[in-house]
Amino acid sequence: MRYGFTTGSCAAAAAKAAAYMLFSGREKREIEIDTPKGIVYRASIEEIRRGPREVSCGVRKDGGDDPDVTTGSLVCARVCVEDAVHDGAYAQEEGSDGAAEKQTQGDVTIQIVGGAGVGRVTKPGLDQPVGNAAINHVPREMIEKEVRRVCALFDFAGRLTVEISVPGGEQVAEQTFNPRLGIVGGISILGTTGIVEPMSRQALLDTIRVELQMKRAQGYRTAYISPGNYGLEFMKQAYGYDLDQSVKCSNFIGDTLDMAVELGYEKVLLTGHIGKLVKVAGGMMNTHSSEGDCRMELMAAAAAREGADTAVLCQILDCISTEEAIRILAVSHMQQAVMDRLLERILFYLRRRVQGKLQVECILYANAFGELARSEGAADLVREAEG
After folding, report:
1. What is the model's pTM?
2. Which pLDDT belongs to residue 91?
3. What are the E-state strand segments in the chain?
4. pLDDT score, position 371
5. What's the distance, CA 297 to chain centroid?
6. What residues have CB less than 8 Å from 7, skipping those under 6 apart?
């Protein structure tokens, strides 16, 4: 699959091209930057606008084969001279003898700000402090490094402002996690490697970590997690639970517990549909279907421990959904006993994962049956959330 380049790489490339055109007086239609991954990014430059002391241009985001909503967005950079101690009176071509080796460092001050379509941070716990543009620290470092290279090339010393903007970023941001994270007014400029890997597991884990980190910074001691939107909606319907407190952990239950321990949470409440969490009863800490599907076998095993006869066990094993299996258990008057048995095993594996470093509670539910089982301390954590 084809990899792409992050919004951070696009911003750094646009900023470098704008700085080059500002100091050289020549148009630049392509530019190269080094990504933190070590892969060279050769970007095409669009929407060039030039003024006496500023230049702006854009780079079109290409997410490769990753289904990224920001793909196709134009990431723009405007480089403006605020004051100049020394403007190089000549323009040298990149790569000419020793030009790229000149050091300006302390003689150059670069301020990086967010413009239209770039979000602003309104809640603590994110990469940037409250009030800052949502341009993460690695993209900021990339932008500064590339612009400083150009300053050295043209012997510039003074103060520059680099403004990053994304036309239409406000609308694109509505399809991202930004509103949930308290980032308003646009998208984030992101990336730790500069490269977008298609459907990256790491990208999903990073998103979970960001949400957990943000809530911990806001003072939460309990992490309320659920594999998906259905679990969050169940909590809202059943308990009037504030969805803004919760974190969607997808299939990464074990990894999310590890993060909660690492970030210093004291308690975790996991709420999930039986179709996902029954797998945890078998010790599966990643519940994606590609990791295995033992739902009916685990339900049948729990039913066998509660005395189900062979006919009931065979019916369960023939089911294609856990909700169908629960109906069979309900008819056999075994539903509650089996659900309690499964919850006991789920808690065993969850608590073994955290090794006593935090309190873990759990609630199981099904769409057609509502709450199926809950651990002894789960109600207290729900009340804590309500308070």
Report:
1. 0.70
2. 38
3. 4-5, 30-34, 40-44, 46-50, 54-60, 74-86, 108-114, 117-118, 120-121, 157-165, 183-184, 186-187, 195-196, 222-226, 246-248, 267-273, 359-366, 370-374
4. 92
5. 34
6. 61, 70, 73, 75, 139, 166, 187, 188, 189, 190, 191
Short-list 198, 199, 203, CA closest to 3 = 198
Contact assessment for residue 35 and residue 193, using Cβ atoms and an 8 Å cutoff: yes
Taking only the tens place, the pLDDT of each residue in 47-70 is 999 998 999 999 999 988 777 889
* Residue 182 sits in the same domain as residue 274: no
Answer yes or no: is 11 within a domain: yes
Distance, CA of 36 to CA of 45 (rounded, Å): 21
Nearest alpha-carbon partner for 193 in 181, 203, 183: 203
Are residues 364 and 265 located together in one domain of the fold?
Answer: yes
At 104 the pLDDT is: 38
pLDDT of residue 89: 36
Q: Which of 142, 170, 196 is the last residue of a domain?
A: 196
Q: Tell me: do 179 and 226 sit in the same domain.
A: no
Note whether 179 and 311 are same-domain residues. no
Whole-angstrom distance, CA of residue 71 vs CA of residue 167: 13
Spans of the chain, pLDDT less than 50: 87-105
- How many structural domains compose the chain? 2
pLDDT value at residue 92: 35
Q: Is residue 202 part of a domain?
A: no
Residues 257 and 382 in one domain: yes
Instruction: Tell me the C-alpha distance between 316 and 106, whole Å.
Output: 71
Same domain for 233 and 335?
yes
